[in-house]
Design goal:
This protein is an all-alpha fold and 345 residues long. It contains 13 helices and 2 strands. It is found in: Cell membrane.
Length: 345
């Protein structure tokens, strides 16, 4: 029973990485798009791409917290006790990101759009870095079990955490660029198709380099997880490499549809390989899944609740994405008005 719940939790993590990660990556490209005039076109594609779905994608994060808290409360408590600083930063970043994105689309003057745009872009980088740093800290044994708190700073600002945090930011940017290629093509914007395609190719190469560095660091700082990646998780590691390489080839050949599917599989395989590498531990070498699991009655009730939630929620997600894909949802935001306009003042 606990194994089934652990698999459900891992699938939810993969879903959040694939959907929510792409939203954060879009913020990275917003940050690097340039000034108001130079960055107007890519930011328009970004706004159109995530405007209808960015709120919905955080349902997966809420699901992850609820399942971990209900099914594996000792692990949840240990992570919260040690990682409260990056978790707080991530929570504040998610709130700042969402509010800034919403207000940027509603205000009329360029001055305030810049302020809210900066909040959206910077927090879009902060959140995946914190998430990756937490994963790196867990993998490297920085989270002790048994109700003891680890170091609130060193636990997520160590070498393994920093490299994994950077890797999370790069992967999010890569996913977003691949999605944005497809979205720009659907809108018939050939200039933006090429703009994001070039960035997707470059980011794919950067992601591969950072992944290699991360493996080297894990070998020295998180040997249990590294050994697991080379054994239990090796098939998924190979799948991720093959899918990533295939996506890169398709991007070079300007085949956006296939590239998006392969990019999703590559990122989902990374999450899956991490879970397999840590098995049977939630906290490597200190807390096993079976040791942290709630009683069977609780796990059974949780599985029933998860099944009901999937039946009620997944069709809504599918409908949302289909309507968004076919551009059948209304656009939001205020008409852009110059700062020099008396009415805007």
């Amino acid at each position: 029973m606990s194994t089934t719940i652990a698999v459900v939790l891992l699938l939810a993590l993969a879903a959040y990485a694939v959907f929510g990660g792409a939203d954060f990556g879009a913020g990275f490209w917003d940050l690097t798009a340039g000034g108001p005039e130079q960055g107007a076109a890519p930011r328009a594609v970004i706004d159109r791409s995530i405007g209808a779905v960015w709120e919905a994608n955080h349902v997966w994060l809420i699901f992850i917290f609820v399942v971990t808290w209900s099914a594996f409360s000792p692990a949840y408590a240990a992570i919260m006790l040690t990682m409260y600083v990056p978790l707080t930063l991530a929570a504040l970043g998610i709130v700042l990101r969402g509010s800034s994105f919403a207000f940027r689309k509603s205000v009329a003057t360029l001055r305030y759009r810049r302020i809210f745009g900066g909040g959206f872009a910077l927090s879009s980088v902060l959140v995946p870095f914190c998430m990756g740093a937490i994963a790196g800290g867990i993998a490297s044994g920085q989270v002790p079990a048994g109700g003891k708190a680890g170091d609130p700073v060193d636990s997520w600002l160590n070498l393994a955490s920093i490299v994994t945090g950077v890797f999370a930011v790069v992967v999010a940017a890569y996913l977003a660029s691949v999605y944005l290629v497809r979205d720009a093509r659907s809108a018939g914007d050939t200039a933006m198709v090429e703009y994001f395609r070039r960035r997707a190719v470059v980011t794919a190469v950067v992601a591969a380099v950072v992944a290699g560095v991360d493996l080297i660091v894990l070998n020295s700082k998180a040997s249990y997880v590294f050994d697991g990646l080379m054994s239990r998780g090796l098939a998924l590691v190979i799948l991720s490499v093959l899918c990533g390489f295939g996506a890169l080839v398709l991007l070079v050949r300007n085949a956006a549809r296939g590239a998006r599917v392969l990019a999703i599989l590559a990122v989902a395989s990374i999450i899956g390989s991490w879970g397999a590498a840590q098995w049977p531990y939630l906290l490597p070498e200190s807390l096993k899944v079976s040791e942290a699991a709630a009683p069977d009655g609780t796990l059974t009730a949780l599985l029933v609740a998860v099944g009901v939630a999937l039946v009620l929620v997944v069709p809504g997600f599918v409908l949302l994405y289909l309507l968004h894909e076919r551009q059948l949802l209304p656009e939001e935001g205020a008409e852009d008005v110059s700062d020099r306009s008396p009415a805007a003042r």
